[in-house]
Design a protein that fits this description.
With about 325 residues, the protein is α+β, with helices and mostly antiparallel strands. The chain contains 11 helices and 11 strands. The chain folds into 2 domains: about 190 residues, no CATH class; about 110 residues, Arc Repressor Mutant, subunit A (Orthogonal Bundle). Strand 4 and strand 5 form a beta hairpin.
Length: about 325
Amino acid sequence: MSKIRTNPDSLAQNLHAEVAAARSDQAQRIGLYHRLVSRAFGRLEARRLTMKIPRLRGLRRRGGAPFHATPELFFQQEGSALFAMPVERFTVASGDVCVMPRGMPHEEMARGGRRPFLTLITMFWPDGFSLHFGHANDEGQVRSDPHDRFLLSTPFVTQCLDEVASAADRPGETTGDYVHHLMLVVLGALLDGLGHPQAKKPPGQDLVGRCQALIEQHLNTQQVSVTWLAQHLGCTPDHLSRAFQRKTGVTLIDSVNRLRIEHAIHLMRGDEFNIGEIAWATGYATQSYFNRLFRRQMGMTPRQYRSSIAGLRKAIPG
């Protein structure tokens, strides 16, 4: 783990009441996101922000913890989080920021403090990024609020985060300054992106809207099922299934698989992940099951689809 510390101070403000009040008001949530990211930016600029960055060991390891195909950022607000990766673990304390590299299997467990656990999580998508708050249940598992999505030139920002992870993995005399300036660019881009919410309506606060947000946020998690979603949402699986199909016209499982295949298609347009890694990164336990569902939806195997994309690239002059 690379730990870049510059005398962090404690964050004393209790944010839970504000977060609760903002759940039904997107403008209020965006204002809260802006304030918290601005605070991290200011502390980074003053070199008073501690960043935790795991070493690049055990990337894309199958089995155990899931991984995302894009980097993530965790802005720890209250309490602390214990992150477990394949070859290391560390604690992210209140006021710290964690940079989780793409492809890094990890599990997060909440630890309390003087105030209940609270974290702000940034995820990246093909057309932008999202922010949502994470809370803890009685067992220390992190539970997510519905997210808000924002427009951004995602490849530029995620490439900066890739370089942050790479630089932190090769410590040297200039590593601290280099990572410091890269992170200023990243947080500055997030602050700019907060001014550009996606035009589509954010997920609703009703049961189905919260369910749709959870599916998007946890597509890489094999445990996502009707039962798992119902447990997170505090209802029975039968009630959730009926409500979801009544509102959307499709079954909950069909919706999960459709979104997973759409995400897999996006990943197959690049060459960073092989087919097995894409299956794992989209929440499938085995490549054979992923192949079967992909073929059912797309009319061809994942390998055939990737070959067709390569053929189109050759056919189009560069």
